[in-house]
Specification:
The protein is an alpha+beta fold and 267 residues long. It has 11 helices and 6 strands. It is globular, with a radius of gyration of 18 Å.
């Protein structure tokens, strides 16, 4: 699957950022829930292992989810579960283990049947959807690390996977808030990092989102507020969507306030 290769590319980009860092720098809190860079790597590592179980060991995955559920029911949070799961693994030792796992995960999904159904926290999904979700989460969480380090990140056309995921979760974004998805859906005219223009959907009078694909991805993954981008949003449906867009699973989450998640300056 090409998505497995794209996942590997995004992981390697993040690895190139964090591999040279001292443990003290990896302990820097980010603008994402005050998670440290090490927390972010740990989160990605834990759920990469879960994705590998879902592909190769359904019983093992069920046991893993049982542990998650027990922590949540007892009043704990996801980050607390992940710290317990990692058994003290942090810093560069964690980065090394994460790298081994994501490379193995990419290799496993590269040869998997894209249509294979795999279990997850909610409904089952195809293997293609599973590795695309891992790609999206890696790219989104990496933004917090790039931001706190004050580094302008480079993007590749693997972002197209996240654009498609963002578009496909249009209706779910509204239903997740017990709202009826307004119709028609806006057309997307997004400029890829390579300069190609990606068009998604049919032309709709008065309903359009236009701009950089990376900024659209930042909005649907909630790593940026719409106000912190240059996206051109036209129409009431497009405006309502971009105000609450959420391409990741779970309960409805509000986007960050304007200016909260941004690249640090002067570091």
């Amino acid at each position: 699957m090409r998505q497995a290769e794209d996942f590997l590319i995004e992981c390697d980009r993040l690895h190139a950022l964090v591999a040279p860092l001292e443990d003290v720098t990896l302990a820097t809190p980010t603008a994402f829930k005050r998670w440290t860079i090490s927390d972010i790597i740990g989160h990605l590592h834990v759920w990469n292992e879960a994705a590998q179980l879902s592909l190769k060991d359904e019983a093992g995955f069920a046991a893993f989810m049982g542990e998650v559920g027990a922590i949540i029911r007892s009043g704990g949070d996801l980050n607390g579960f992940e710290r317990t799961y990692l058994r003290g693994l942090s810093g560069q030792a964690l980065v090394a283990q994460w790298a081994l796992t994501y490379r193995a995960l990419a290799a496993d999904f590269a040869v998997a049947d894209p249509a294979q159904r795999v279990p997850w926290a909610g409904p089952s999904m195809s293997a293609r959807s599973s590795i695309t979700a891992r790609l999206m989460e890696t790219w989104a969480h990496a933004q917090a690390a790039f931001d706190v380090l004050g580094i302008e990140r480079e993007h590749g056309d693997a972002l197209k996977n996240i654009c498609v995921l963002g578009l496909n979760t249009y209706g779910w974004t509204f239903r997740n808030r017990k709202l009826d998805p307004p119709q028609p859906m806006p057309q997307l005219l997004l400029t890829a990092p390579s300069g190609e223009v990606w068009t998604f959907g049919d032309a709709v009078v008065g309903e359009r989102i236009e701009g950089q694909a990376a900024e659209f991805c930042q909005v649907v993954t909630q790593t940026r507020n719409l106000a912190d981008t240059a996206l051109q949003v036209t129409g009431p449906n497009a405006t309502a969507w971009m105000a609450i867009a959420q391409c990741f699973a779970g309960k409805a989450v509000d986007p960050p306030a304007p200016g909260v998640r941004r690249r640090a300056i002067g570091i």
